[in-house]
Amino acid sequence: MEIWINPACSKCRGALGLLDEEGAEYTVRRYLEDVPTPDEIREVLGRLGLEPWDITRTQEPVAKELGVKEWPRDAEHRDRWVEALSAHPKLIQRPIITADDGTAVVARSEEAVRDALSR
C-alpha cells in the first residue's frame, strides 16, 4: 500500500494517523517532491476508476491561472489534464491510497481510509 501525501494537508495527516492506528504497512510518497509522471497518474486514475478532472483541485491558484475549470472534460482533452497534474502536482487531490488489491481510493474521509485497509 502506498499513500500520496502533502505533509501540510490535515486530511493527509489524518489518513496517516488512522493507518498507523490500524498497524497498516505502507509507504509514503510526498508527491510534491516525488512528482508522479503522466504515466503514473494514468495508472492511478485507472486504479481509481476516475478521470483526471475528478482528482483536480480546481480552487488552487495555479488551477485558476491555467483556467482548468473551462477545459473540456472529454477523452480528447484527457492528456492535457494528465500533463497539467504532472506539471503542477499541487493540483492533485489528496491523499490517494493505492491498495494492495490493485485499486485505489481518494482517502479524504476515515471511511475511505478504512475501505482501502479492507482491500
Automatic annotation (TrEMBL):
SUPFAM superfamilies to which the protein is assigned, alphabetical: Thioredoxin-like
Entry annotated with the keyword Oxidoreductase: yes
Highest taxon in the source lineage: Bacteria
PROSITE patterns the UniProt entry points to: ARSC
Keywords: Oxidoreductase
Family of the protein in this entry: Belongs to the ArsC family.
Name this polypeptide is given: Arsenate reductase family protein
Species the sequence originates in: Streptomyces gulbargensis
